[in-house]
Amino acid sequence: MSDSGDFHKIASSTEVGEGDSRPFKLDGHRIAVVRHKGKIYALEDRCPHADATLAFGMVGNGAIACPWHFAEFRLETGEVLSGPACENIQIYEVRESDGAIEVRLSETSTNAP
Ligand code: FES
User: Fold this and answer.
1) How confident is residue 106, by pLDDT bands cut at 50, 70 and 90?
2) Is the CB of residue 57 less than 8 Å from the CB of residue 66?
3) Of the residues 30, 54, 68, which should be mutated to test ligand 1's pocket, given the most ligand atoms within 8 Å of the CB?
């Protein structure tokens, strides 16, 4: 089992409140951590359209909208829901433990269209 499969602390639970979306860096990865309807998500923090920071976008209805041209991505899967982006984004396994948000760096790939 490689070390890349381990969970790593990315933030304190208090740093990402309900409805928040915040950008973090972990081991060279740009990761948006989102808390939406009581659930925590970790997503690739780079819009495939033109490299915007997705963490600065609006969250609602289980999706995050890119702050630049409003492409939408499903929080649960990273699936692109509307253009102009046409590629999915990576998502990461995430959990909370003892007041910390922890992310597993091996990406969960989404192959949905
Ligand atoms: S940079 Fe995200 S939609 Fe254009």
Assistant:
1) confident
2) yes
3) 68
Q: What is the pLDDT of residue 103?
A: 97
How many Å lie between the centroid of ligand 1 and the Cα of residue 61?
Answer: 19
54 lines ligand 1 (CB under 6 A): no
Q: Read off the pLDDT of each residue in 6-25 and give the average, rounded to a whole number.
A: 96
pTM: 0.89
Closest CA to 91 of 44, 50, 54, 53: 44
Q: Give yes or no for a cis peptide into 67 (omega within 30° of 0).
A: no
Q: Where are the domains of the chain?
A: 3-104
Q: Which CATH number fits domain 3-104: 3.40.50.1000, 3.20.20.70, 3.40.50.300, 2.102.10.10?
A: 2.102.10.10
